Amino acid sequence: MDQYLVRIARQLLLGVALSLGVVGCGGGANDALDALPSAIDVAQRQAEVGVTALNWSDADLQRLSVRGAALYKQCRVCHQIGAGAQHRSGPSLNQVVGRKAGSAAGFSYSTAMRSSDFVWDEAALDAWLARPWRFLPGTSMQYGGISDAEDRRAMIAYLVTASE
Description:
Blueprint: H1 2-20, H2 31-34, H3 39-49, H4 58-72, H5 111-114, H6 122-130, H7 132-135, H8 149-162
Helix pairs in contact: 4-8, 6-8
């Protein structure tokens, strides 16, 4: 019962922080962000050409993942990654790159995420991290997004290198 109350309190605090603009990076009008695909666009592309693999050099992956680790600190309230990671109010992010959306065993996803039909590849993660609510309307994730494209690449690199 105590963990349940703590979880609710965290989500309430996160919601208040988001509404005040304290948490997250982004929001506001931005043509580059508006041009990013939706979950439906990504699913259609994946059906036509398949899931895109990351095409980064090892040096780029390592360089970006260091920056991504610093950015990931804002995600730790809801998500875990690495050895022993468990679901919190968000699913564990171990091996999220290449995983079908809404498929982490043991996590209770929103209806929108459960009924989605895409795989988390670079394009999907990039659009999701920019504006989750636009990418997948009806998502339960309360996050303002990351407006900077290079920061999103860094986060994706971290997700790849920190996964178990």
